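Message: A physicist's question: would you kindly supply an amino acid chain plus fold tokens?
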Amino acid sequence: MGGPAAASGYADQPHLHREIGAFTGSTPAAVAGAPWLAIDETAWPASSGAAAGGRVQ
């Protein structure tokens, strides 16, 4: 789990978790399962997989 934190510019996983908690008021696990976290295909077409024929690039 430290890989995504480092790739996002955080020094380590606890820093990422603290910021997620401060921003959302929830735990990272709760945020990851939140329905509002879905990728917006209009705003991020390359990230949604729609532009790649259903495959995430």
Observations:
- The chain is about 45% helix and 0% strand.
- The longest helix spans residues 13-24.
